[in-house]
Amino acid sequence: MNQVSNEKISRLAQELYQGPMPYSTHDLALSVALHFFKDTEYADQLRSAQLMARLLTLEWFQEGKVAPLLMKSFEETLYKMYK
């Protein structure tokens, strides 16, 4: 929803992708999103985007595209921060 610059997203995605943990495309996207949703600097501006992100993530999970533990962490984190 264009709340975080493409440069910041790309930089973080590259850092995570080049790290020691292998990522599928969807797991990497979820990890990047989780990073920004957890960052208090972005909390207010991402409040409106969190519901759409949670719905999309649920869809990916149901399709088997994301790791269950990552999905659980994402949902629990967003629930606590944006309830």
Oligomerization category of the chains in this entry:
single chain
Strand residue percentage: under 5%
Count of domains: 1
Task: Say how many strands there are.
Answer: 0
The level of helicity is: over 70%
SSE series: HHHH
Q: Which residue ranges are poorly predicted, with pLDDT under 50 across at least 5 consecutive positions?
A: none
Structural classification? mainly alpha
Give the biggest beta sheet: none
Looking at the structure, what is the overall shape? globular
Chain-averaged pLDDT = 94
Number of helices: 4
CA-atom Rg in angstroms: 12 Å
Alpha carbon gap, first and last residue: 20 Å
Account of the 3D structure:
With 83 residues, this protein is mainly alpha-helical. It has one domain. Helix content is 73%, strand content 0%. It contains 4 helices and no strands. It has helices spanning 6-17, 25-38, 43-62, 68-82. Helix 1 packs across helix 2 (25-38), helix 2 (25-38) packs parallel to helix 4 (68-82) and helix 3 packs antiparallel against helix 4 (68-82). The longest helix has 20 residues, at 43-62. It starts with 5 loop residues before the first helix and ends with a helix.
